[in-house]
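To: structure desk
From: M.T.
Subject: fold request, one chain
Message: Could you run this one when you get a chance? Sequence is below, nothing fancy, just the single chain.
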Amino acid sequence: MPGIQQLLYRIGNKPGTVRPNSAIQWEAGMLALGLFLLHQLIEWGIAVVYHHSVLDICHWDCLRYVALAEQGYPAAVTTSDHMENWAFFPLFPLLIRAGVALTASPAPLVAVLLGKLLFLGSIYAFILFARKYSNTLPALYPALIVTLSPYAVYGNSGYTEPLFLLLTSVFFLLLKDRRFLACGLVGMLLSASRAPGILATLPYALVALQSLRTANWEQRKEIVLGGLLIPLGLGLFMFHLYHRMGDALAFLHVQKAWGRNFGNPLTVIAAGIRQGTIHLDWALMSLTAVVAALLLIAMQDAALGVFSLVSLLIPLSSGLQSMPRYIWWQAPLLLLLAQAMKWRAARLALIPLFAAGMVYMYIAWMMGKSWTT
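Reply: Done. Structure tokens follow.
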């Protein structure tokens, strides 16, 4: 994994920029691998108790990614409820298809194994990201935040969350070092991975505008080119949808069929609080995340905070159920949790709480509880 980081830092490298210390890379790699293997052992133990297979947990959205990998996007409505797969972005299905072609293995198995590989990569990348933005932070803390997350189940079940965390961490690493061309290339992948990926243009613009003031002509061309690359992933997806079924914005228009009607995020939170039960949990979780994003803007890093805030408010405006996936796999918000672990009291509270939540989520997932999706 250190080799991957070195390769990324060669792209768009500028003279005089210090590369990551190899000792930091090695520590991050060993921590990521060790905690990833521990996580797999915990998952395996839960699966044994509940008579489940750790390689047979491709359910719900995972099956939709598999369908996209095998059949592509439908050219017309094929289901009575109109809940077509146009809502799902193409990068992860393309990786599944490539994995199937390379291994000749069943697509559901490839989706789960690929998700696990990306989960490992996301732990490593997030450690480096956290150390870059908080250089006094022990590497163990960000590693624990990702591997013990109550919603870490998505890292082992063929979902796109670990891919998003991996790409987001690398994007912000490159942005911090002003490697605009490489940043644009990673941003292009981000915008093809999930809907919030296109929002990488916001932190990029904030940092780019600061750099343009002192940049020479060659540097300005690189900054502009990097910015133009970010929406290319989404643009290619839209072009494919238009060519396939005549609607470049099908990924937005299909949201109604999925029961998502956009409204006021604060109204959504208030409704969740009134509704109670699991909706209350999602509402309080979302409210806390929004406050955390505002704190990021005010106290730490405007680029990180703006990305987090908008990445929260847009999905929140359409409902609460998917919000944990937008909160617990978002690098800037996880960074705040990692920083909180500098305090002993926070570690004593968070580590057992997170571990218990993670085990509970795995049990619920293996029991087929629909609210885990």
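Reply (cont.): Confidence is low (pLDDT under 50) at residues 7-19. Let me know if you need anything else for the meeting.
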